[in-house]
Amino acid sequence: MASIELKDIIKRYGVGPKANQVIHGVNAHIQDGEFVVIVGPSGCGKSTLLRMVAGLEEISSGQILIGGRVVNELEPAERDIAMVFQNYALYPHMTVFNNMAYGLKIAKLSAPEIKARVDKAAAILELGHLLERKPRELSGGQRQRVAMGRAIVRQPQVFLFDEPLSNLDAKLRAQTRLEIQKLHRELGITSLFVTHDQVEAMTLAQRMIVMNAGVMEQFGTPDEVYNRPASTFVAGFMGAPPMNLIAINLIAAYVQSMRVSSIFNSEIPPQTATFGVRPEHLQLQLAGTEGAFPMQLEMSEMLGAERLLYARCAGQQWIVRIEATAPAPAVGAQFCVSVQREHLHCFDAQGKRIASV
After folding, report:
1. What is d(CA 78, CA 66) in angstroms, rounded to the nearest whole number?
2. In the Cβ-directed half-sphere of 173, how many Cα atoms lie within 13 Å?
3. What is the arrangement of strands in the sheet containing 61-66, beginning at the earlier edge strand?
4. How many domains does the chain have?
5. What is the reported pLDDT for 14?
6. How far apart are CA 114 and CA 81, in angstroms?
7. Same domain for 259 and 225
8. Considering the chain, what is the average pLDDT of its residues?
9. Which of 205, 207, 327, 344 has the greatest number of CB atoms lying within 10 Å of its CB?
């Protein structure tokens, strides 16, 4: 096992003034045995960052250290890593056993050692009864487990996962997430996992790197990222439904015009451009309740245990999350909500977090 250090990592395609820079000075220290998820929308640079750690992409500037060793000039095979891709990349003519054993045979390990490693990985992944089958006889989830088994048998210092669950349906994704968590608990190998799915990121990560257009917006635990987002991008990207982000001048003027108590402190910070509040932190209130302000319901969405209310206030759309059993207003009706100050988030004109108001 080993730590991973990213020091001022920059990636450019091309040279000179026309060069396209896609990774902008990423710095991160991933501890030995830690499971870190790199999350962000398509095209944000998360897979490029992972491929640079793997040695599949050259680094334009900066250093990558694995286990304290600079690996910038090392080939992928020399970095002691194992990678699991979105595409299972199994050999169709080989059995599960031979797919998992192939890399060990190339490394010229003895037959007893190969069998011991494959049997151990198969036991961890519950593949023991499938070792004589070929990939066409397996489900998508089973093929992905074989791909993970092929990585496990190498006993690397680092696991790299590049969107390995994207080809699975929702039920299999949830099941495979549990298997990956169990695998990490048992093996304790330092892992980097790339995904665009925030649910995967929140459930798998011990810490996560949130990427946006090649910039690391935030590096923290799921709790920190969700409850103290570093920017409006993180606030809007992490969470389903996303945080309500409202221009402060609009809502402040609206609240004052309705002659209800302001939800803000006596003076709104002049540098503040936006405030945010999670849908679950807006509470339905009776009309006339101090601190409550009205909005009009445009749509209601039933999601089983909860209901989402899409409403309009101060010219902007809001989302309110309530329990499914709570009485809900009719579409077109007005209702009132309130929010406690500790659940408010403030962001400056550049979209960076400054404080809760």
Report:
1. 11
2. 17
3. 20-30, 4-13, 61-66, 69-70
4. 2
5. 87
6. 18
7. no
8. 88
9. 205
SS3 339: coil
Q: Are residues 271 and 136 in the same domain?
A: no
**Residue 336 · residue 289 · CB < 8 Å:** yes
Cα(13)–Cα(83) distance, integer angstroms: 24
pTM value?
Answer: 0.87
CATH number assigned to the domain comprising residue 350: 2.40.50.140
Q: Are 5 and 12 in contact (CB under 8 A)?
A: no
| Cβ neighbour number for residue 294 with a 10 Å cutoff | 15
Q: Compute the distance between CA of residue 240 and CA of residue 306 in angstroms, rounded to an integer.
A: 12
The alpha-helical segments, DSSP class H, found in the chain are 46-54, 96-106, 111-124, 140-152, 170-187, 198-204, 222-227, 232-237, 248-257
Residue type, 122: A
As a whole number of angstroms, the distance between CA 196 and CA 151 comes to 22
Instruction: Identify whether 241 is preceded by a cis peptide bond (ω within 30 of 0).
Output: yes
What CATH number is given to the structural domain containing 199?
3.40.50.300
Half-sphere exposure of 34 (CA within 13 A, CB side): 20
Least confident of 155-159, 179-183, 264-268, 296-300: 264-268
Instruction: Yes or no: say if 308 and 278 are a contact pair by the CB < 8 Å rule.
Output: no
User: Can you tell me the mean pLDDT for 215-223?
Assistant: 96
Best CA proximity match to 29, nearest among 265, 146, 190, 157: 190
Quote the domain boundaries for residue 296.
244-355
Residue type at 103 in one-letter notation: G
For residues 165 and 184, the answer to whether their CB atoms sit within 8 Å is: no
AA identity, residue 350: Q
Query: Is there a contact between 144 and 176 (Cβ–Cβ < 8 Å)?
Result: yes
The tokens describing 60, both together, are 């334009």
- 123-140 burial code (b ≥16 CB/10 A, e <16): ebbebeebbeebbeebee
The residue type at 129? H
Q: Are residues 213 and 249 in the same domain?
A: no
According to DSSP, the residues that pair with 137 across neighbouring strands are none
pLDDT over 70 (residue 262) = no
Residues in contact with 234: Cβ distance below 8 Å, sequence separation at least 6, in sequence order: 210, 212, 217, 218, 225
